[in-house]
Amino acid sequence: MTETIHCPSCGVEIEGDASSCLFCGAALRPEFAQMATDVSPTAHRVAHENRPAQKDRSAQTMERYREGYVHARAINAFGATVKMAALIPGVILVYAGYEVFGSSGSGSVIGVFGGVAIALAGFLLGGLGWVLGVLVQSAGQSMKAHFDCAVNGSHFLNDDQRAEVMSLK
């Protein structure tokens, strides 16, 4: 098992074979690493939140995530638009096919087949467009879920900033 050490710069606990701190990026040299046992997670978080460089990183990180969420919401809205753009003409075609089928009577084979063909085209257009819209919306929702995971795991944001970025506050 690898030895765990504390970063001499920020105090976070890391594996001894790491070449740099995953939290603050400080270069690690095992010969200079100190075994710090008195750094609590709360003291560590407070110390990092109050550093000027940390505040700049927080602002940059929040902006990046905000832009990502805007992009994910746009994809989601586009999927909803695709669904409606396919569903409305699909319903109109199904209704038109029903009307052609109903008005053809029993004597017109062309009217019957034409009505069925129009209704079938409406079902295909509406159904396939709906499925495509659902797939596009699922891509947007998946992006949001990925951003939620990234935001929740970010060391550069505190809980209030996470809630703000995710629009929960």
* Total tally of structural domains: 2
Order of helices and strands: EEHHHH
Number of helices: 4
Distance between the ends: 42 Å
List the uncertain runs. Answer: 30-38
Helix content: 55-70%
Structure description:
The chain is mostly helical and 169 residues long. It folds into two domains: 1-50, no CATH class; 54-165. The protein is 67% helix and 4% strand. The chain is built from four helices and two strands. It has helices spanning 41-49, 52-104, 109-153, 159-165; strands at residues 4-6, 13-15. A two-stranded antiparallel sheet has the order 1-2. A hairpin with a 6-residue loop joins strand 1 (4-6) and strand 2 (13-15). Helix 2 packs antiparallel against helix 3 (109-153). It is rod-shaped, with a radius of gyration of 29 Å. The two termini are 42 Å apart.
Descriptive key words:
2 domains, mainly alpha, two-stranded antiparallel sheet, single chain
What would you say about this model in short?
The protein has helices at residues 41-49, 52-104, 109-153, 159-165, and strands at 4-6, 13-15. By secondary structure, it is mostly helical. Strand 1 and strand 2 (13-15) form a beta hairpin.
Topology:
Elements: E1 4-6, E2 13-15, H1 41-49, H2 52-104, H3 109-153, H4 159-165
Helix pairs in contact: 2-3
